[in-house]
Amino acid sequence: MVTCARHFEGETREEIGAILEELGDTDPQITITEMSGILTVKTRVDPKEIVKKIHEKIKDEPWAMRYTLRAIPIFATVNTDAESIGHAVMEQIHKLKPEDTYRITIEKRHSDISSSQIITQIADQIKNKVSLEKYDWIILVEVVGKISGVSILKDADILSVEKEKRII
Description:
It is built from five helices and ten strands. A hairpin with a 2-residue loop joins β8 and β9. The chain folds into two domains: 70 residues, 2-Layer Sandwich (Alpha-Beta Plaits); 78 residues, VC0802-like. It is α+β, with helices and mostly antiparallel strands. It is 33% helix and 29% strand. The two termini are 24 Å apart.
């Protein structure tokens, strides 16, 4: 999932397409969603590799990333219902070691599904400790209407172009 400023979706699609081409995917599916500023990207390239490439590009040529605001790896897409989301989390839960902590982050757009219902569905299935401040992993649920993206990630796996440019 990629975000950009409103009305710059076309430019962002070209920017991400060029990066994917550099990574060897000449035919990605980059879709501008009905929600302003949000694009979905379906590619053969590992989403973490895309984030890594954008990191490198910002370090080498910060002016080259003009439109992309955030790049968020999504490892599963499911229907927006608590049971499907919970199942997608459990398919990725092997990433956590027994001593690892986690937090659940839910970002909802165009949906009235209850965040607490999703959190309960996920948390009831996981034995690891929850830590909202000092966590090892983020269980990220991106609700975009009737479809939700689900990922278990480290903080470093999510790219914020603005934050990266401030670090340089």
